[in-house]
Fold:
Amino acid sequence: MTLTTTPDGVRVEGREFPTNRGGLCRKGWTAAELLDRPDRLGTPLLRTEDGTFEPVGWDVALTRWVRELRAARATHGADAVGVFGGASLTNEKAYALGKFVRLGLGSSRVDYNGRFCMSSAAAAGNRSFGVDRGLPFPVTDLDDAHTVLLLGSNVADTMPPFVQHLAEARAAGGLLVVDPRRSATADLTADGQGTHLQPLPGTDLALLQGLAHVVLAEGLADHEYLAARTTGLAQLRPALNQWWPERVEAVTGVPAHRIREVARRLASDPRGTYVLTGRGVEQHADGTDTATAAINLALLLGLPGGERSGYGTLTGQGNGQGAREHGLKADQLPGYRSISDPADRAAVAAVWGVAPETIPGPGLPAVELLASLGRPGGVRCLWVNGSNIVVSAPDVAAVAAGLERLDFLVVSDFFFSETAAHADLVLPVRQWAEEEGTMTNLEGRVLRRRRAVAPPPGLVGELEIIAELARRLGVEGFTDDPREVFVELAAASAGGRADYSAITWDRLDAGEALHWPCRPSAPEGSPRLFLERFAHPDGRARLVPVGGPTRRPAPGPGPAGGLVLTTGRWLEHYQSGTQTRRVGSLAAARPEARLQVHPATAAARSIADGDVVEVTSAVGSALVRAELSTAVRPDTVFLPMHFGGEATANLLVEARTDPVSGMPDFKATAVTLRRPVAGGSA
Amino acid sequence: MGDRLLVVGFGPVAVRLVDELLPEVAAGRLRVTVVGAEARPGYNRVLVGEYAVGRTDHEALELVDEPAWRGAGVELILGAPVTWVDRSARVAHLAPGSPVEEVGYDALVLAVGARANVPVLRGINPDPAAVAHLPRGVTVLRTPADGDQLRAVVARRGRVVVLGGGVLGLELALAAHEQGCDVTVVHHRPWLLTRSADRAAGAMLEAVLARAGVHVVADAIAREVVLHEGGDFAGLRLADGQLLAGDLLILACGTTPRTGVAAGAGLRVDRGILVNHDLEADTEGRVFAIGDCAEVLCADPTCTVCPPRRGRGPAGLIGPGWQQAQWLAARIRRELDSDPEPMEPLPSIESDVIRLKAHSVEFAAAGEIDGEPWESPCGRSVALWADAAAGSLAKLVLRDDRLVGFIALGLPRTAAELGLRYGDGAEVPADLSVLLRLDGPDAVDPGSPSPTATLCRCAGVPAEDVTAAIEDGCRSVAEIGAATRAGTGCGGCRPVLQQLLDRDGAVAH
Structure:
């Protein structure tokens, strides 16, 4: 987008760009309203003895913080201090933060909310392709697709401008949407523009196995491609032969003939066919395997690395791609390097000017990190930067209790978020329009973010905070200049999987479209990753058998009166809602959470539209108004994740995670539903 | 008790058991030998019909990752029927000509499955051992080798006679018909799928088949297999004298659990090999039976788990067999770990959903299907929908608001949803018609937008704002976008904007 400063404030205008073609959604059009909100945080706030917050100067804030850091480390060891980051931070901040935790604090305890977002798809991509880049092709490649299988992604609400790229597929009747709800995206399949499959939440893996089964069993697989570009067909085949369509129907509720139809459509002409996944299929305790099953299907069809075909995952947050490449993940170093691999460690250590053994080993993935708060051996002093975990993490009641156990909690945000309310120190930070840096979009293309307006006086950027903390802790090697940080980041990534070493701000500012890997030997970058080879040493993609016999079945509706809760997003709101709930028009359109319930399910419980209902899971209860809709399955209820307080969806979600990726199971929780018999008001 | 596990039988249930135990075998904690009567490793029997009509190939039947199994150390002995088991010596004896003569064990799992029934008909030998000696053009359908005959007939669009209108017979008949064969189904009961459909559903099913072009002869007694002079199948003679000519006769007359080896070893057998609900066939907990050969029913009269199973016999379905394999593997793992925690028992009733695998007819059924809507004995209620012209029927049997049985014909989404709810005992909507409408056009049509609704979802612009913008002089979609932001997101509403421009803009001029 383009910003213009006017006497009335900042004006937002769409900017012609390949991914959105000048289009913006309501969140984009109204984003500038947040820049001068009166409730924006303006100075550090320090909790006082009586529990209230008191504005303090930066020196007081940092002095206190450094004292707490030192105390925690001296008493409990370096791993007693930790950082929880966010995938909305720029590449430069993500890099600096990851480096600061490892070198400045000497701690391994860093992870970020991208663990709740992209980690399953990332793990699957690494396992199958040897590399993880959301889309290994430019999004504009979708423009002439005739068939797109879109699993668990409600793009019509979450990134409306993306829908433009589906126009050809819809015209060809080939938009295939998998969603337990008839979402706005599923509605795009109406009138012969495609097919909507509506499986029970938590059964996507079985559905994908069934689609792949049909492709193999009916002889629709591209065996020439499989022989030339993959390994593992012999192992995959027996696993898939167990998933004939009628068996899949019994698990998913999707009729067998529709599974066959969709599989045949996918195989009818691989050129022009794409498979895309989103959080709906990835945010499960078997999310990595589910994403892998989608990749297996795409490989059987010969899509990845072909001309005009492929598999991709639609990245969630603003910098969901970039933030995970530069060291905010517990198990990674910059350049998408492994923190456990000696060669990777040595390469980064050389850039950082330290001995490899100085860099701590792998830390804890987000859910484990949060579970450790204030526990013996756990983190005692935490900095939450760019994340509202009291709304966005699973089992938020337990997370809030963990925050209360901490010795010292620092939260940086633009607004006083639900998480900030638990803090000992709240730090105001700059917003997107007020800073310089880079982001990496869902295509692996690095984008410049430019300062459009001056930040309010008295605000300090995260890079300056990090540099100042490092200085006070007596650690060298941290600068507050984002351009210098990028130069270092590019050097640290050289030779890594996400190699930025030939990218410079000057090239980006000159308008070059640069997709990583972008190295001096191939400075033009890599818009299409897999045309020649995949990133495993042998150049081949792996077909990985998943959903094996020992896998536990998805949690179906549990006890009597049981329903499955699935959570997700609305058009009007973004993430935990800290920002969008403060935008007048968005809050007016969607002021509070609503639980989507099928009318028949509601009728059985004497629930009317607008009634307050109590939703209860194994870990908690939420109170929220019901919104009756036939767009949701009768055995399923849907709650958006954008709200706090009693309507927080994650009060209900358990802290169960995927064993490979650490991804929480946000999308399938067994719940019961009732109208509370409240005294008086009911 | 020792680490030698012998699995006798190599069907899909045996494969699942070994797959589950593979990590233990690879870790050297368990030695596993599988003895199979057929020459090939275990395959997916459920898909033999698909293979037999040429819809898929041999490879689509494979279930065993053989290199992984051998790498882990599983020993396979193929083409070796077990003739008897000496329980006192803990040795299984193999038929003459097998690669080895005997295999010792510490624990034994019988997963020997069931054999196809051969009916008593003039012209063929009903001895089950003589299945291999059926006349050319007469076959049962249990193995891929059986399927090869049908495959050849389907390839030349021959005439197929199917004796038996049960699930297997009907699936084969429909598949062969869908592939272009002329097909006749002969059934000895008054209506097809006698065990899974009531009279009304059976009658409608027959009508649906007739409309599709499958010839059904119900309530018929087959008398004689008539052969050509060369010994090939010529036709099936019925008791009323009618001769049904064809190129191939498929005998789909049900199966019988293989109990011979168990009976010979002194184990209890009834319709199947009797095992208690811990799947033990003996009193020592050393011999187990799973899958089509196993009948789960405790001898213990005080058992509270087994009574609902009485009289049901082996399920004969792969789902319960795989469930047993998983449960038994978990039990074996626990014993290896010396885990004293008691296990969750096997579910007392296995899911018995019948889902016809056919492309042209949608049929599913399960559980209790008897009763009529106007009867409501002992807390049961029956709901029925039938539309003969459309060939659709749904019957739901409920007890205590839970689905305990159903039939669904010609309603695929309804069938799928009923299957889910029957399987896990989940809630059934109070208004059952919700489930019927899933296959209706209103279930997929989001409906036409109301005139007051938001026109541009992305920017949240109501229709009236657009109308106002046109009245204020906007003459293009771009101008409307500039004025209202409508059409500036996904662009999905731009055609509607153009329509409004064409309509209202023309008026304004």
Observations:
- The longest strand of chain A covers residues 621-628.
- Chain A touches chain B through 68 residues (CB under 8 Å).
- The mean pLDDT of chain A is 91.
